[in-house]
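From the shared-data thread, chain only:
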Amino acid sequence: MNPFTFAVVGLRLLAVYCLIHAVTPLFQALGYWAGAIAAGERFAQTYPIIFSNTLPAVVLAGFAVLLFWYSEPLARRLAPPVAAEIPTGCSFEQAQTLAFAAAGILILVTSVPAVLQSLGNVLELSAGFQRAGLHSAWDPYQIWTRLGGAVVESGFGLWLMLNPRGFRNAWHWLRTAGS
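Structure, as tokens:
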């Protein structure tokens, strides 16, 4: 594999990583919005909180789309020019599979703390600490939606880590529109 194709794989891997990390902030914003609706608050009172929690997800998702869309032009700028194909023992598919497995490990490792913190908040909520005034400042909607986003993110990271070849095949199928 030449440096250009390796750079394309790396940029697309970074795009997938950014897209997956946009999930948890989006779920948190949904939790704030559901909590505000349940409390009967007006949108004008809660929009700064919703906006501040939605902005990271939108930026990460936009960055992911741009990285994926412009991965080849960026790779041309990043990769050194090669006069001839350099023979290597690794094919493009093998390198892509390895890169997706590495992304799965990275996603899983960074999302597990959010799952554990959310589970702690759920335990606080269910153990009655709320009545004693010893609970966190989050409302139940925020706790459950944050837990949902972190679990989805962790599950995707685990699937990507344990089945990178299947993800590579699914990615190829999506990219070629099933043909």
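The radius of gyration is 21 Å.
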